[in-house]
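Bug #77: duplicate submission created two jobs. Keeping one. Sequence:
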Amino acid sequence: MNILDKIVIDKRKEVDLKKSLIPISQLAQSVLFGKETISLANKLRTSKSGIIAEHKRRSPSKSTINHSLNVQDVASGYEAAGVCGMSVLTDGKYFGGSLDDLLIARSSCDIPLLRKEFIIDEYQLIEAKAHGADVILLIAAILTREEIKQFSEFAQSLHLNVLLEVHNEKELHKSIMPSLDMLGVNNRNLKTFEVSTQTSKDLTELIPDNFVKVSESGISSIETIKDLKDYGYQGFLIGENFMRTDNPGAYALDFVKKIES
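Kept job's structure:
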């Protein structure tokens, strides 16, 4: 059993508990549930940088990343930096995040927010909408084709963008469908945790051009981004590179300026 298997088992227990405590009707009454969403896909299509900056406290592969920063400062800093969107980890056990982080980020900035979570139930999409998300992540490695279709179509009915994440060709082939907005290639091998942007390069020609292509993990330099742009990528998810600093927003600002110059 790899780490992803363990996370999904725990996530099913967590979602079952939440469903028993907070009914969908209560989530749907949230003030944010009726808020108009902002399209991350559209932002990426017109951006020079394509940066999606992440808030992440820790991860199974890197342990502690940064516990000293508050979400409000990170979110407002990212917005000031001119990034296209912000990814917010909401998993607690393995990443130290929460839905409160999403709420705080929403109150602190007006850029597209991605709820980065291990989605295994439609309930989590309603949670995302109720807590201010504009985008949800679906991970092909933990979902069947039928689940990807079900969740992505439901997300679209809630006016949420969908970023579908794949790690290899097999996952990509089972995932391509009209109800997705963005296709993300995770450069991290989930079994070995090794990272290589060659994964993004190898898969790019298999991704239809009508999807916004996003490269995730292992992106730490301007040169890497410029290289991946030549392969058709318009979005670049960066977390640890910013979060390991004392001021992620300032670091992101410098990063974006260098890309756009």
